[in-house]
Design brief:
It comes from Acidovorax facilis. Belongs to the pyridoxal phosphate-binding protein YggS/PROSC family. This is Pyridoxal phosphate homeostasis protein. Pyridoxal 5'-phosphate (PLP)-binding protein, which is involved in PLP homeostasis. With about 240 residues, the chain is α/β, with parallel strands linked by helices. It has 9 helices and 8 strands. An 8-stranded parallel sheet has the order 7-6-5-4-3-2-1-8. Helix 6 links the parallel strand 5 and strand 6. Helix 4 packs across helix 5. The protein is globular.
Amino acid sequence: MTTIANNLQQVLGRMAQACKAAGRDPASVSLLAVSKTFGADAVLEAVAAGQRDFGENYIQEGVDKIAAVHAALPGAALQWHCIGPIQSNKTRLVAEHFDWVHTVDRLKIAERLSAQRPDHLPPLQICIQVNIDGGPTKSGVAPAETLELVRAVAKLPRLVVRGLMSIPDHAPEFEAQLAIHASARRLFDEISAVGEPGLGQFDTLSLGMTADLEAAIQAGSTLVRVGTGIFGGRT
């Protein structure tokens, strides 16, 4: 078994244990393998070990990797998630090559993604990025403004709003991690309860990474984004 395959099994084991501790079905939480800075060979190893969903932070690197992996495995049913910041001049690349975007935090970017999504592709699956802990230098819409942005994005063609994503500042203690992830869960539940038109598939809470996936799952995450725990440390 390769190191990546072994790491994947360890991460899936952690997720299963966290689900058990939270009284949740392990099938209710998906694993997104964050492959930024690692080459297509690393992704192919993960695919061989059963992984199908991959997250990329750097858009051009991600597009190149998607092409390389597709050339190597033209029939593989993989899902590619853009989980990094998006500048206006990169929205076309995202719209044309990715399946999911987790980092929409302003309407302008969503409008460009909508306009540039090719008609022959399925709708782009969107998560709204929320600056849940209010960091002054961090991306994300303020919690109080999230519902308004969700409503606006849900009206755009070729996009489907699937949920929320956050990247809070690192907290070393489990209880602190849990508290901040729980606040994202509350916001998610509040928006879900509104019953807004266009939110029939609002089902995704993208929370948690290698260091805090247990707290995220306890809080209700449906998708954890793990890079280091699968591919190792980055240079």
